[in-house]
Design brief:
alpha+beta; Immunoglobulin-like; five-stranded antiparallel β-sheet; 32 helices; 52% helix; metal-binding
Length: 840
């Protein structure tokens, strides 16, 4: 009898033969988890606090806590950011739901805060380690067990974005995207292989031939589930739908030229997209219309459209074969049908047509203007007009990246023989992700998956050359007990040893060595920002919002109704999540790139009010006008506090004017030493950014420093040296507070009289919370009647209850001087806040 006559025995044999590989993958997964949790002491601090590694991670923990507080209701609209508009949350719900369910189970329905923090910190590391499973199976079905094991090893240590996003404390949905998209490709690939091997036809569906349909159907359903899971982690997940659609076109054309049916592909695609449509539909927000980055009708229509596309590709092929058309007619018919489909969509819904047409450029195109300054949205291969590979080598290692390119070339060459569907799918998948990282390096964590599989594919081909499968079979036949292992070594050939050494040296060791270096990278959240936001939370008035509430989004065209006590905090968008999640205050701009203002297309546009417009404002008056314009309500400024750090004022500043499209004149080339160097110009020193941070707000009428953190070494000293040398300044050439907080106030109006055309000066010494002092001064000239007026922002009498509890203040009264006259003036906090007059 054959083994098929004894299914139980066959199953036992299958388990017995696969357990060594299962154990090996499990060990690789544990190694992957170890390296991702190695720097745990940078996340779990000695004081009991948990320090997440990036701004999006902090925000995910905010959405997680809101979800747990209101379970099962999640936050879709957040009024605590992008003040005074609020922001729709484009994060998918699944990542937070998985963490919430885990926390609820471990906490027996009532998880304590530290448990939630722990789950959130470890979650990305666990998902990263689990990714070895689908990578192993994809490698296995491309080149056998050896390729699968090698692929699992490479992805376990793959450096770059993939490792960074899956390190402990990197609580972001990106690693969930990688895991579920890879599971999607794995199950889609298994469905294709199964359906192809069983020679599935649509007649099997009509005849209910379960023997043929069962396995491909299950794999297709699982592919649909995993695609839905991927898209429910990130709405922009339509990228992988595009990948399988492009693959389907190529595969159907290849099948047609090889006189083979594509029914297996049509069946797989239809079932996958149908399941996805059903699972995504409950999460659609009809009020979002057609949107790529929010769950909208776009996601349902594209899934239905993809389902129709798979059906059409197969049915057109069947009809062309039935009518015995020439093979080259088929791609022409597909092209014509595609053009007609786009024309139909354009007539039916121009907005949907525009979104579909522009989606590829959104994903694959090079960003211009302000968006080009977003780290994850910049090209991996271009710096300016130059093509560079240094970033790819840095994130993937030189051998890993070059191995992927060689793997792509070999897969492409295989198209000229009779390639397997999984090989064609892998080729299209790798090529499109490679194009994607040309446009935006955020997709680099996807390409790490491709590199792992392609590297393993090359390694597998090398092992095939040295007849590794023969060696493997001899080992299996010889080794029955542990004492048989030494006898099996006689089968090993020299070329096999060299092949293994080459794989270790060129494919495994580089990624492992690079991964070890990544574990030594310091936590991405600056201590000084945590300190400053903690101060903000404890020493500024409560804005009157329920921090953990789920708020309804305003109706179209309406603004969210904030309480009168609400106010914004102006800073650059990078720091918005810190302000909200650590400081519990409402930033005007955030890492969703909301609240930046400026221009997007042309310098001729109106410069919209926002963070970029405020910090590049060339005068205090224009900066204040921006704050007033941000909030459309009369007598209500868009921000009460401004947070600045040394990096924003120096190395990061060049990114700010790019959002206004007015970048000229902030720096100039100057010959220093033996080379030209860019140094800041007068235009830079006149910006509000420089006035606040470089000059400590000296001379400003409505802005006062209320707190600063410790000084850290930065480029601030160099900027002050330039100002002193080129512009006759007398700034102390020292680093000051790394993060500074300023308050926007009405200011006390000090008025008096002196001789006509007399120079009048007012000054005081400001003592900061860190014990640093600096001079605050203003000067003016009296008019023809001898009148003068100053508006000063500092109170000499200290804070009052219910208002800012500032630690930085004058060390004594203001000193007013003109001619031989000096007068001391005390200013109360009420006078500063109400803008009242003090007559001298």
């Amino acid at each position: 009898m054959s083994s098929q006559d004894h299914p139980v025995s066959s199953f036992k044999d299958k388990i017995k033969s696969s357990w060594p590989y299962t154990l090996t993958v499990a060990i690789i997964g544990l190694m992957s988890l170890w390296i991702r949790t190695y720097p745990s002491d940078t996340v779990f601090l000695s004081d009991g606090s948990v320090r997440y590694t990036a701004n999006d991670a902090w925000f995910h923990m905010r959405t997680l806590r809101v979800l747990l507080e209101n379970y099962p209701h999640r936050m879709f609209f957040d009024p605590m950011t992008n003040y005074p508009n609020g922001s729709y949350i484009h994060f998918g719900p699944l990542f937070d739901q998985m963490m919430a369910i885990t926390s609820l189970i471990l906490g027996m329905g009532h998880p304590i805060s530290h448990l939630v923090d722990t789950v959130g910190a470890y979650f990305p590391a666990v998902l990263g380690a689990l990714t070895v499973i689908p990578v192993y199976y994809i490698g296995k079905y491309i080149g056998g067990h050896k390729t699968g094991i090698l692929a699992a090893i490479v992805i376990a240590f793959a450096p770059g974005h993939f490792l960074l996003h899956s390190m402990i404390g990197s609580t972001d949905h990106h690693i969930a995207e990688s895991l579920f998209s890879t599971f999607f490709m794995m199950f889609f690939m298994l469905a294709l292989i199964s359906a192809k091997e069983k020679k599935l036809r649509f007649e099997d569906v009509f005849n209910k031939n379960l023997k043929v349909l069962k396995e491909p159907f299950i794999y297709s359903v699982l592919a649909g589930v995993m695609y839905s899971a991927y898209q429910l982690c990130w709405p922009g997940g339509s990228l992988f739908l595009l990948i399988v659609l492009v693959y389907a076109v190529f595969q159907c054309i290849l099948d047609n030229f090889q006189n083979e049916s594509s029914d297996y592909l049509g069946f797989t695609g239809i079932i996958t997209c149908l399941v996805s449509t059903i699972l995504i539909l409950p999460f659609v927000h009809p009020d979002m219309g057609f949107s790529l980055y929010y769950y909208s009708w776009f996601h349902v229509i594209t899934a239905i459209g993809a389902m129709a596309g798979f059906a059409a590709l197969s049915l057109i092929q069947r009809e062309s074969k039935r009518k015995k058309m020439k093979t080259y007619y088929y791609p022409l018919i597909i092209l014509g049908a595609g053009i007609l489909g786009f024309i139909f969509i354009k007539v039916l819904s121009p907005s949907l047509y525009s979104l579909i047409i522009n989606a590829p450029s959104t994903i694959f195109g090079i960003q211009q203007g302000g968006p080009s300054t977003i780290g994850e949205a910049s090209s991996m291969f271009r710096i300016g007009d130059k093509i560079v590979l240094s970033e790819a080598y840095k994130y993937f290692t030189p051998t890993g990246f070059l191995a992927s390119l060689l793997g792509i070339v070999i897969l492409a060459a295989n198209l000229f023989r009779k390639p397997k569907p999984q090989e064609v799918l892998l080729l299209i998948w790798c090529l499109l992700i490679l194009f994607a990282i040309y446009g935006q390096n955020r997709f680099a964590y996807y390409y790490s998956i491709n590199i792992s599989i392609l590297s393993a594919y090359l390694g597998g081909l090398l092992l095939d050359k040295v007849k590794w499968n023969e060696l493997d079979q001899k080992f299996k036949n010889t080794v029955k007990l542990p004492e048989d292992i030494p006898k099996a070594f006689k089968f090993i050939k020299v070329q096999q040893i060299f092949a293994v050494l080459a794989i270790v040296l060129f494919l495994i060791y580089p990624v492992y060595g690079s991964a070890i270096l990544y574990t030594k990278i310091s936590n991405g959240t600056p201590d000084q920002w945590v300190e400053a936001c903690d101060w903000l939370r404890s020493n500024t008035p409560d804005p009157g919002m329920n921090y953990n509430a789920v708020y309804e989004a305003p109706k179209n065209g309406e603004m969210f109704q904030y309480p009168d006590t609400a106010y914004g905090v102006m800073s650059w968008w990078d720091y918005g999540h810190y302000i909200e999640t650590i400081g519990h205050r409402m930033p005007n701009a955030n890492p969703f790139q909301a609240g930046i203002g400026g221009r997007r297309v042309s310098i001729n546009e109106t410069n919209q009010p926002g963070a970029a417009t405020f910090f590049t404002a060339p005068s205090e008056e224009e900066a204040s006008a921006v704050l007033e314009a941000i909030d459309p309500r009369p007598d209500k400024a868009g921000a009460r506090y401004i947070m600045s750090d040394a990096r924003m004022a120096t190395v990061m500043f060049s990114a700010i004017p790019k959002w206004t499209l007015d970048t000229e004149g902030y720096e100039q080339a100057y010959w220093i030493g033996n080379q030209y160097q860019s140094i800041p110009t007068a235009r830079y020193f006149n910006t509000m950014k420089a006035k606040l941070h470089i000059f400590d707000g000296n001379g400003l009428k409505h802005y006062r420093m209320v707190y600063e953190t410790e000084a850290y070494q930065s480029n601030e000293v160099a900027y002050k040296q330039v100002y002193n040398y080129f512009y006759g300044g007398k700034l102390p050439e020292v680093d000051t507070g790394s993060v500074k907080i300023f308050e926007y106030v009405k200011g006390a109006n000090i008025t008096g009289t002196a001789s006509p055309n007399e120079t009048v000066k007012i000054s005081t010494t400001i003592l900061t919370d860190k014990g640093r002092t600096f001079e605050y001064t203003q000067s003016t000239t009296t008019d023809s009647q001898g009148r003068y007026e100053f508006t000063v922002p500092y109170s000499t009498e200290g804070p009052i209850a219910g208002q800012t509890q500032f630690d930085t203040a004058p060390s004594g009264p203001y000193v007013l001087s003109y001619g031989d006259t000096t007068k001391e003036i005390k200013v109360s906090e009420e006078t500063v806040l109400k803008g009242e007059e003090i007559k001298v």
